[in-house]
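Troubleshooting entry. Yesterday's outputs looked truncated, so today I'm pasting the complete records for two proteins to confirm everything comes through intact. If either block looks cut off, that's the bug. Protein one:
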Amino acid sequence: MTSFDTSVVGRWSDDHWFEVTAAGVAAYAGAVGGPSPVYAVVPAMDLVFAVAGTAASEELRARVVHGQQDMFFHQPLPENSRVAVRAAVVGLHGKRSGTVATIGVQTRGVDGDLLNEQYVTEFYRGVPTDLRLGVPAPALPADPPAGEPVRVGTVALPVDLPRRYAAASGDHNPIHLDDATARAAGLPGVIVHGLALLALAGHTVLPAGAGVTRLSCRFTRPISPGDALTTRVWAHGDGYRFESRDRAGAPVLGAGLVEL
């Protein structure tokens, strides 16, 4: 199997300019049931895929899954304005079960001010290495939340959610759109985008009108359209911990963290 290209670690891309439009923001909100800070991933979507592909061959990319997402918000994305996005593979870390690639993302306004930072963690299943290059993503909570949740919410996942989310987000990975491709990747069929689940869970986690400075989670298990997502929320300092499960009670989103 082709090895990773370690020379790309720490090599930031040129700026990629993206137009944030009111129509695009509204389309994303329509796909995930309301406005969501997770829209911040959309300007970076194509660039993240391109940069991730510089570290791994197409053969390796067939074995990758989205491990976790960590977003730090400094200023809101301005509607009807351009933003500049740059990205880099900032870390490659191996273990016995596979290799973790961490992609860093920075989004800035036209004046150069930093709007948000993101860490996208990809896991290459069954590709063990001894790599220890660059930096890993920021740590997420390792212990389970304690006590009783302060909120619980359940949302049904429409069967057309993957198609609608792909159109609104620009993430057209075929495992979310084509049953044959998903099964070839070892999945039961089409699965819902992890970021769509994070946006949907966020409606339960975040009080109406609350500002957020960090939103993070680990993607622990795929879930099929037509299932339901139940999110439990615990108070945690000035923010919240959360986790989400499918209809059968299996964990789908874990180590969820919100800082306000």
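Protein two, checking that the full record survives here as well:
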Amino acid sequence: MPNPRHALPVTFLTALIGGVVFKLLHIPVPWLLGPMLAVLAGSSVRKNLFRWPGPIRNAGMIVVGYTIGLSMTSAALHEMVRQLPTMLLMTVLLLLFCAFMAFIVTRLSGNPYLTMLMGSIPGGLTQVITLAEETEGVNLTVVTVMQVVRLMMIVICVPVLVFSPLLGLPQHGGSAPEISHPGVTLGSGDIARLALFAGVCVVCAIVGNRIRFPTAYLLGPAIGTAVLQAVGFQGPPLPSIAINAAQFMIGTYVGLLLKPGELPRKLRLLTLALMSGLLLVLGALGLSLLLTRLEPVSMSTALLSLAPGGMDQMGVMAHEVNADLSMVAGYQLFRTFFIFFAVPPLFKLAIRLIRRK
């Protein structure tokens, strides 16, 4: 049965209500989670009333990719190069810990290991959901539930740990500039530069999609933005309304992809998701202790560098406690790109092995 003509406006208004409610309730990433859950609830009642074209979601992905590319400043890149062996070690250890947790959750829940592994990957919510959508044999609904619960655990537990006297706030932070610009406004010169970056981002996204680049609409713009900055162009930071709009576009699309009827053993899965999220926080804390032994950094800087949350949230907290922003951004960026470049080929290998068995 085809969608009615008013499906798109209904979807937009439903998602908007969800975002506003989540914003008023001060729930983390409200313009991603609010539209996602509102559209999910609405489409569960009247499926044919809701529609959200893929190109709208792709536009949101391009905006997010641009913001990731902006974070690749010279300070962050310098920190990534200087600490490359340590970053690789910490990232691999964290992923191995997540793979072990996924194995345990698989045994307890009965879900496929590939789905549990994707649900346990410590990447950004938007990026991991996109990667899950593009990976064959993965239950997107289960992955989304696991990732949302993990995000909530990170948002709750990491600030408590960072701002507690247990870690000891550092007396001297890094000299890197702030990586978030919540109240930025664009001037005429900024608009001209933004047009240049927008063109490059769109071209990189389209080319990346044509050559089957993993999460092309995200990584293509990120790489294009980073290259432009490396050759001397400075991309203007986006106002918060643009970031919120991008999350709105993506969250609404993901909400229509979710199918609660395909969620097996709901109560058990939610319980295991909470446990795995808490274990992931404890694992990051343990790795942070190791990092402080390998590098002359504070415990707060180490935890924010390794915490499996979004780089924007970790950057804000790093600024608040006067931690080393360039190191936090460098580690978070390295893990993000490592997951996007290394995980898809590993997943394809895992799928082949599972099918052979």
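Both blocks look complete. Sanity check on protein two: The mean pLDDT is 79.
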